[in-house]
Amino acid sequence: MLPVLLFPQFDPVLVHLGPLTIRWYALSYIAGIVLGIALLRRLVRLAPRAGTAEQADDFLGWVTLGVLLGGRLGYILFYQPSYYLTHPLAILKVWQGGMSFHGGALGVIIAMALFTWYNRINFLAFADRVTVAVPIGLGLGRIANFINGELWGREAPASLPWAMIFPDAGGIPRHPSELYEALTEGLLLFLVMFAASRKQSLRERPGLLAGLFLVGYGCARSFCEFFREPDSFLGFLPGGLTMGQLLCIPMIIAGGALIMHARRSPAYAGLPLTDAETAES
Question: Is the whole model's pTM more than 0.85, yes or no?
């Protein structure tokens, strides 16, 4: 039997400050949101304008609530509703893990809908710019999953050079699926979205970039699910699907519909310059 990699024993806690602990997982959320907002500040000002830098800053609080509340409630509803129904206080124990990307995505969509309505800006145009930044947080989150030694992959052949034994996963070589997801849902999807966002002809079609993100994420996640071990309390669904793959189906359909809608819609003229921006120009 060929030697395989042993999972490095990372400490999931980055810093201990007395009773306060800062975990890598929490840091990934913070860094993803902060870096995403910094990029959003630049994207919304590209022609045709979808907002201002100040509005991008204001969106920070909205997106944070959308991610945290949506991600937590999505995990509860999609993955373990019966457990949390009988253990309601466990809902508050977010430090024990339990966040769903699909729930977080719904939370962000609701936050964007309310934010754009309140600020009277185009929802789809703003969503196009937001979705370009989302893979940053996805990639960092998957790296944090790897550091925590959680959400490991299915059994892999020992001949696979990067097959890894996780300490709590039965002592058998497995795919480091967290890294697969970091590379596909994170890095690869970001490169595709960023390259697309550089084309003004695509930015002029509200909903096209958002649709591209939904299709891209749905395909990347569905692919990685073939290497990821299903949650023990769910296992495989009928047809050999996993819950992650099932939840990606409506995302891919919605993304395709958005792309078709964007291609058939008239070009977006964008928001006019503010008085301050006019003075600067």
Answer: yes
